[in-house]
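I'll show a typical protein example:
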Amino acid sequence: QVQLVESGGGLVQAGGSLRLSCAASRSIFSANAMGWYRQAPGKQRELVATVTRGARTNYAYSVKGRFTISRDIATNTVDLQMSSLKPEDTAVYYCHADYSTASSGGDYWGQGTQVTVSS
């Protein structure tokens, strides 16, 4: 089992910044990928950003240039720096870890942290 604990959510005005952090109970270097997803009310959960074991990053088009995902292998944390926030970024943000192997699944989710951007 892997526990993921998010922190850093809150209320911010449009144009502001927030930094989310996800602390993993297991080495993140052994994960295939770590990422952030979000779910707004009435919408499906969507990918925000991911970082692979090889440090390759991927971003949703809607956040490219505004959000940056980073990881610290020494502390087993994955952060999401969010800038130029818009009201449409309002959602619950979830940390995700993929530790799956050829013989077993390994998807883990955090409990989520609320981000609210006011106009």
Observations:
- The chain has a mean pLDDT of 96.
- The first strand starts at residue 4 and ends at 7.
- Residues 60 and 78 are 17 Å apart (CA to CA).
- DSSP finds no helices and eleven strands in the chain.
